[in-house]
Specification:
heterodimer, A: mainly alpha, Helix Hairpins, B: mainly alpha, Four Helix Bundle (Hemerythrin (Met), subunit A), 8 helices, 0% strand, globular, cell membrane (chain A), NUOK/Mnh_C1-like (chain A), quinone (chain A), transmembrane helix (chain A), NADH_UbQ_OxRdtase_chain4L/K (chain A)
Amino acid sequence: MITLTHFLVVSACIFCIGLYTVLSKKNAIMILVGIELMINAAILNFVAFGKYDKVSYGGQIFALFAIVLAAAAVAVGLALVLNVYRHYKTINPDEIKELKDK
Amino acid sequence: MEIILFYAFAVLAIGSALLLVNLKNIARALFLFFIVLFAMAGLYLFALADFVAITQIMVYVGGVLILMLFAFMLSNKELLKDLQDSSGSFLSMPRWQAVVLAIGFLILMIFGITEWHQSIPTWIQQAKENNTEIIPTDNNIQQIGLRFMTFYVLPFEVISVFLMMALIGASHLSRKERNR
């Protein structure tokens, strides 16, 4: 029997791996991957709780909304990454320090 | 049988996510991300959310991952440097502050889960007692479609407009500027 706790522990592990990716990577694309991992962990929680909500299907429908929001965030984020690369010739967030044009 | 499959998917997801973090080669890391997403879709199936699992595969694997691969290939100066660096060493050097923070947060969350397990919310208790959980023979997709078009119609329309705005903004940002 798979209980709610199983889902919660798995999604806690995935969330912490995503957090570690965001904190330790030096590449903007890998940071986006870390954010996606964290969003996936949250979606797993929504779905696991949504199993007990047959009246309004709140968990599953909010999970679908979260997937759409993540897709929109990635589209805009990657466009920004490409623009930053065109300007600075690097996508390491540590080296991007100035806002004005040179 | 069911629980063995669940553990297999969970180990696949967590293991390839850990490997993803430690790989230096970004192309391989992105393909491992693909495996993580598939395993997560498998886990959604165990929570009886078949439509969410299919949407995950279509949106993430079909859209997000391809987009990431494109962005990665368009900014590939870093890629060549990384490929040359990682020929000798398999694992990159972990930053210990990030490790400490992530493990601390994991411990905090596990502690929260065990504490929370003592007192399950009443609506979950009620659903268990009245047998109103979602069961495998339910027609989930039809029910979700009905809810989208009746109870959740306003959020649905708002998020449609939002998605269109985001995509127009992304294509505007990534367009080549002519007069510069």
